[in-house]
Automatic annotation (TrEMBL):
Protein origin, superkingdom: Bacteria
InterPro entries on file: DUF2855
Protein name (record): DUF2855 domain-containing protein
Organism field: Brumicola pallidula DSM 14239 = ACAM 615
Organism lineage: Bacteria, Pseudomonadati, Pseudomonadota, Gammaproteobacteria, Alteromonadales
Length: 369
């Protein structure tokens, strides 16, 4: 088995480790899956940046290299990714060999899992080390049992689902809070796929605020061409935002200086700031004008679990499915899927993902041999 690991102290540093996991004897009730493919986006880097706060390192504990008994594996972590895998060994009578799954996996060739609460379409990984983690990340979907499953759309799903389900959660949260009284929404890092997923929902809602996109100069043309934002500005054009309008900020960047300048510019009309992503993770320190009292870190699984409890799973799937169908369709008008060959290929491009050098319209899919 091979596994892609990143340094917990320097997320750009990575390595590939080989071990004997795929040859390990399975305990009763366990399965071994072979990872087929997964997406790599800036969202995965966010997992690393907030890993200690949220617990992302705990999903897939790093394995020691089989060739190095003195390896200090505690300094290394495994980034969770979204993708597809197939069951290749099973000691669980409810999970047959050959079953295909969509969900949360490590960037690795294999993973040992412990299926529990098996239903006709899903099961939960009940591995002990994942028991206290958000259940939304522990659900695996048996895709071939899903109504309307089409393998041709798998790439769209693994690239966009984990991002646009956050977009849906944000949209639902803002709408249920009457947009915090805002008539204007400012999207920071507007080129991100989570941003555009939210923007499509806002644009489709006649009662939602108008939208201002903030993005880098190099992405201005691309963002403007989407036709979803009412105004598109670069980070050095913050002063052109109308500060007389009550404003909701959605921050996908984590850029402390941009947040500080925007909060200062808006003043009392900065009604609420939702801190979601950290595409600018190297520039997170905020300044003295950042309004902490009206800012809040957004954790999508909490909002999603709230709605599942209120609506039931069937109602949730209906509501979110309608939203995702629209956002997926719009995104496919510009999304360019780019295949990367295995963990070696991921290693070659990983630093560029960390540094934000991947064009926003590119969707990276890692295909395992």
């Amino acid at each position: 088995m091979s596994e892609f690991q990143v340094s917990k102290s320097n997320y750009v540093e990575s390595r590939i480790v080989d071990n004997e996991l795929s040859n390990q004897m399975l305990a009763e009730g366990e399965v071994l899956v072979k990872v087929d493919k997964f997406a790599l986006t800036a969202n995965n880097i966010t997992y690393a940046v907030v890993a200690d706060k949220i617990g992302y390192w705990q999903f897939f504990p790093a394995h020691t290299a089989s060739s190095n008994n003195s390896d200090d594996v505690s300094a290394w972590g495994v980034l969770p990714v979204w993708g597809f895998a197939d069951v290749v060994k099973s000691t669980n009578p409810e999970v047959p060999v050959g079953e295909r799954l969509f969900g949360y996996f490590p960037p690795a060739t294999h993973l040992i899992m412990h299926p529990t609460k098996v239903s006709p379409t899903t099961w939960i990984d009940g591995s002990a080390h994942r028991a206290a983690l958000p259940v939304g990340y522990n659900i695996y979907r048996k895709v071939e049992s899903e109504r309307g499953y089409n393998k041709a759309f798998e790439d769209d799903r693994m690239l966009l689902y984990p991002l646009h389900i956050t977009s849906f959660a944000l949209y639902d949260y803002f709408k249920s809070n009457d947009w915090f009284g805002a008539t204007q929404l400012v999207m920071i890092s507007a080129s991100s796929k989570t941003s555009t997923g939210l923007a499509y929902g806002v644009k489709d809602d006649a009662n939602a605020p108008s939208q201002v996109a903030l993005t880098s100069t190099r992405n201005l043309q691309m963002v403007a061409s989407l036709g979803v934002y009412d105004k598109t500005l670069s980070y050095d054009q913050i002063q052109q935002i109308d500060a007389t309008k009550p404003t909701l900020i959605v921050d996908m960047s984590g850029n402390g200086q941009v947040l500080n300048d925007l909060h200062k510019h808006l003043g009392d009309n900065m009604k609420f700031c939702s801190n979601v992503g950290v595409t600018h993770w190297k520039e997170m320190k905020t300044g003295p004008d950042f309004i902490k009292q009206r800012s809040e870190f957004f954790f999508a699984p909490s909002q999603l679990q709230k709605r599942i409890k209120e609506w039931g799973m069937e109602g949730f799937e209906e509501q979110s499915g309608k939203y995702l169908k629209h956002s997926f369709t719009k995104s496919r008008e510009w999304l360019k899927i780019t295949d990367i060959n295995g963990l070696d290929g991921m290693s070659n491009i990983y630093a560029d993902v960390c540094d934000g050098k991947i064009a926003p319209e590119v969707g990276l899919t890692i295909r395992m041999p």
